[in-house]
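Duplicate of #3305? Posting structure anyway:
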């Protein structure tokens, strides 16, 4: 059992006799501390907001409520309909049912936070996929249009081939790495996606015709005729 810690200014129990008026004024002060984050309302026989109303309605014979101070102390307030002496005290530990309920709530919050994080990640990835599926066709159209209008026909050397099994990247599963010289003499090397027939036709070391975009030299397409 954990010893009760020295009280801080937020969990001091009044030294005078606990009257009904003092009980209610202390509860009001504790509620203010809860709102400011100095105390944590753990739970009890009613909500903290409806505490006074529930007691006055006499829905139960006794009402107990539990608080935890930031300094580590636990507080209990008690009010019995049949007793004129309310209770305000520090306790060593929470009752088993209250502690169990608190742990369940904490675990539930952690699990919900974890799930919310996963759901946000899924939504983020879905958003990226949707954006990509919309933007990429537009990008390909613009690039194809540019290479058609500004293209220069030259020869290139196939220096590499790659096939992605059971996957597609940007709509392609087959890729060729090409090496070529621009009209200004600069050597370029780039990888382009091709269809299966083009992939099988072009072999490493082959010289193949291409069209490259003079405005963007890595914008290349095969020119097999």
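Output from current build:
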């Amino acid at each position: 059992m954990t010893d009760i810690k020295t009280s801080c200014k937020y969990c001091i129990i009044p030294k005078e006799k606990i009257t009904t008026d003092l009980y209610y004024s202390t509860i009001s002060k504790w509620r203010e501390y809860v709102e400011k984050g100095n105390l944590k309302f753990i739970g009890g026989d009613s909500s903290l907001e409806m505490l006074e109303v529930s007691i006055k309605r006499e829905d139960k014979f006794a009402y107990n409520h539990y608080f935890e101070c930031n300094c580590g102390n636990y507080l209990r307030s008690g009010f019995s309909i049949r007793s004129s002496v309310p209770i305000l005290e520090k306790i060593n530990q929470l009752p088993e049912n209250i502690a169990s309920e608190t742990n369940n709530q904490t675990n539930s919050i952690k699990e919900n936070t974890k799930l919310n994080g996963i759901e946000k990640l899924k939504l983020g990835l879905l958003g990226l996929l949707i954006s990509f599926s919309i933007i990429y066709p537009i990008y390909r159209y613009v690039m194809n249009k540019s290479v058609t209008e500004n293209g220069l026909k030259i020869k290139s050397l196939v220096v590499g081939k790659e096939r992605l099994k059971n996957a597609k990247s940007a709509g392609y599963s087959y890729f060729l790495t090409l090496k070529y010289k621009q009209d200004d003499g600069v050597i370029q090397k780039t990888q382009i996606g091709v269809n299966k027939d083009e992939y099988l036709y072009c072999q490493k070391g082959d010289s193949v015709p291409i069209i490259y975009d003079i405005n963007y030299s890595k914008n290349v397409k095969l020119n097999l005729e």
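Confirmed duplicate; merging threads. The first helix runs from residue 20 to 36. The helical segments are 20-36, 51-57, 96-150, 196-201.
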